[in-house]
Amino acid sequence: MGNIDVISFYKYSDIKELLHTKHTDLGYYIYSILAKNSFKKFAAEFNYSHTITSIAVDDYSKYGYSHTAILNKALKSRYINPLFNKLRAKNRVSYSGKSKEFRLLNPRDFEVKNFKQKDLILIDDIITTNLTLTQAVGALQKNTKKVLFCLTLADASIN
Q: What confidence tens digit (pLDDT) does each residue in 89-120 have?
């Protein structure tokens, strides 16, 4: 992924039980609270020379909502304009609990939908191996987009 910074708001181990609600009815509410306490606060403090766009990794609606879309929506502010349904994985295989080898053998195969904005913030919920973000950045760069940095709710690589 090169020199693109990833900012995470929590250690995975600190909010693991909350994150595991994402596939339940309660998950929508838990993710909304987590987004309010992290992404929304970040957006309120964020300043830039012009408005930039935020894009969520695979904000596909599953279980009645998209957890990455909730995080992305919380970024709406003076300098950040969230877009939705712009970066979709063609591979629907779940990475949850899978090894790095499995993830390498089953790439996300991201499709970038057409949009004009160039400067982006890339959003995901959990960073584990960095493969999803690396693949997403690569797909965006192939489509002449510049990822300024990535935001994730939790970092599972921190002990």
A: 887 777 777 777 887 787 788 999 999 999 99
Q: Which residues pair with 120 in a beta bridge?
A: 53, 147
Question: Domain tally for the chain?
Answer: 1
Tell me the C-alpha distance between 36 and 40, whole Å: 5
| 65: CATH | 3.40.50
pLDDT digits (tens, 9 = 90+) for 16-32: 999 988 888 899 999 99
- For residue 124, what are the β-bridge partners? 152
Tell me the C-alpha to C-alpha distance, in Å, between residue 79 and each of 24, 41, 82: 32, 13, 10
Q: What is the span of the domain harbouring residue 37?
A: 5-155
* 53, 115 contact by CB (below 8 A): yes
